[in-house]
Amino acid sequence: MLEIANLRFGYGREKTVLEDVSFSVRAGANLGIVGESGSGKTTLLRLLLGLSRPQGGTISFDGETVDAADRGFMRRYRRKVQAVFQDPYSSLDPRQKVRDIIGEPLASLSIPGDHRQMVAAALDEVGLDESAMERLPHQFSGGQRQRIAIARAIVARPKMVLADEAVSALDLSTRIRIVELFKALSESLTLVFVSHDLGVVAALCEEIVILEAGRIVEQGRTSEILRAPAHPYTQRLLASVPRMPA
Amino acid sequence: MTTHLDVRGLTLTTQGRTLVSNLSFAIAPGERVGLIGESGSGKSLTAMAVSGLLPAAIRAQGSITLAGQEVIGAPGRVLDRLRGTEIAIVFQEPLTALDPLMRIGRQIGIPLSRRHRRDGRDLSGRALESEILGLLEKVRLPDPSRILRAHPWEISGGQRQRVAIAMALACRPKLLIADEPTTALDVTTQAEVLKLLDALVKELGMALLFISHDLPVVASIAERVIVLRSGEAVEAGPAGEVLVQPRHPYTQTLVEAARAFDDALSGGR
């Protein structure tokens, strides 16, 4: 579904953020991209969303090149690809009712049909009651807000959802619930989940790409990489995660 | 003296809302206690109350004694003396905890020369610089003579947190409060800073109050834990018991969630 080949991005000559990044995302895949600060994971996500243009290499979606300057393509792309961001407090307009927040992609993409009913269905899917529609974001907890952001991402029935640290700002007990929600949703769409948190990605994603300083150091099936990490960086990352006492 | 810090019936309120309710715990010299809580649990407010840094709008009731001195209601002069000798704090975000315009050496030099003045010595020039370098080495910072002259933005996040720890150590406190000290750090850096804290607390015989939402992180450093929920302690005991066989349903939920991520890492999917 998504083909990323030899991607390069940098600022000026000295600062290279991404170098020779290649991977592909199959339709229906559930892929985690793991990296620490400075790994280039956020830049990579911006390129995938078409918010920035790569300086080298290509991204193609269903055979078409993702090009931020091609407005016709970007319009079709927005219909098929949606995003969920880290901070549920800043990603929702505080003055808009939940109904309008979730309905926004339906309106801006001029999607035909009964929008109210679609919003209700999306709310139901993320585990929120229909009564949430008439309320404002501040009336919800962090976890509920992230559910609203997820409802907005899925309401237009995209083929793919890109999530950027989508559970990192949440408390532990909420985080596990939202991970479960993403897992359930990933059954019916393609998910690319970017995070610094190896534990979250291990719990959620079937495949994994490990980024270090702008390069992919390892990629493959999550279970295999966790069992036998090949690259020294992956080994160090895995060994650094503190564990619960036995 | 068997307790260094004694918190009894601490209740914090503001505008009719109770933020911390009837909290009691004690820390003996050299003991490491973990305060576990999610957002809104009151864990950071408790740290503020203990160090006498509560915002004026928050009313404290109960008692907090630090080395036998009551903290609640104590005048600033008394608190100033306690902070530094008895207690020092390392905060979550090392970028905002440090003065962006001041070179690292000077930031560490201020609490250091203050402690020496308190002990009746005047430290300056080369003698001061060599003590600052000693502290930078103690927190295992590479190339201390470069870092001494660097500004906070010229060093990495993990290095900044080491500087913040060096500043806290400059005071030789008997109790170190660390409020989410590794939450803003990468996991590989976190592992290094935890190891450093662990070694320093042992080496200097400090007591530690380690505040975090992260169960495995707390488990790696604290011998005893207190679990806070909405300002109330729901469970307390040895880390090996509370985090392995939690009794309170809330602790059980937390432990279960932490174990789910842990298991995922161990077994894959």
UniProtKB/TrEMBL annotation, chain B:
Belongs to the ABC transporter superfamily. Residues 5-255 form the ABC transporter domain. This is ABC transporter ATP-binding protein. One of its GO terms (cellular component) is plasma membrane. PANTHER family: ATPASE AAA-TYPE CORE DOMAIN-CONTAINING PROTEIN, OLIGOPEPTIDE TRANSPORT ATP-BINDING PROTEIN APPD. Pfam families: ABC_tran. InterPro entries: AAA+_ATPase, ABC_Ni/Peptide_Import, ABC_transporter-like_ATP-bd, ABC_transporter-like_CS, P-loop_NTPase. It comes from Arsenicitalea aurantiaca. It is found in: Cell inner membrane. It is a peripheral membrane protein. The keyword Chaperone does not apply. Keywords: ATP-binding, Cell inner membrane, Cell membrane, Membrane, Nucleotide-binding, Translocase, Transport. One of its GO terms (molecular function) is ATP binding.
